[in-house]
Amino acid sequence: TWEEDLPVSTNGRCGLLHGRCPTGQYCGKDGFCGNDFNHCSFSKGCRPLLGNCKCGEDYGKCADGQCCGADGFGNCPAGQCCGITGFCGTTSAFCSYPLGCQPIFGECSTGRCGKNDGKCPTDQCCSKLGFCGNTLSFCSKILGCQSEFVLIQE
What we know:
The protein is mostly loops. It has 2 domains: 2-59, no CATH class; 75-154, no CATH class. Helices cover 10% and strands 8% of the residues. A two-stranded antiparallel sheet has the order 1-2. A two-stranded antiparallel sheet has the order 3-4. β1 and β2 form a beta hairpin. The relative contact order is 0.10.
């Protein structure tokens, strides 16, 4: 995403013109980096794409569609996965372990699917052999696609 391409701020400011906050600091709604409650709390307007944010307990509820990160609290809605960027979703970008899915905040896909292995992300199909993928060999009903083992977007 464009936020990840921004340089780390060197002047204490954060945003499109200034960059992301350094590790351990948070981007407040005022566009400044800091590490106090007013900068890192979702309830005070922390900007998660420009620095970490905390949520839960004293920090407030995660923003809609967000699952915070390893330093915060908050889960994705049932059936969704928490991606490495701290947002919730149902595609492989959010749900795949190799792409950084955070199982502590939501569901994750191991690449296996079926009765004993769970569901595939919404952009993949469950093959007859119990693997997730998005080619014809995974998604063809004739070849045994198991559509009941795909996360359903609500």
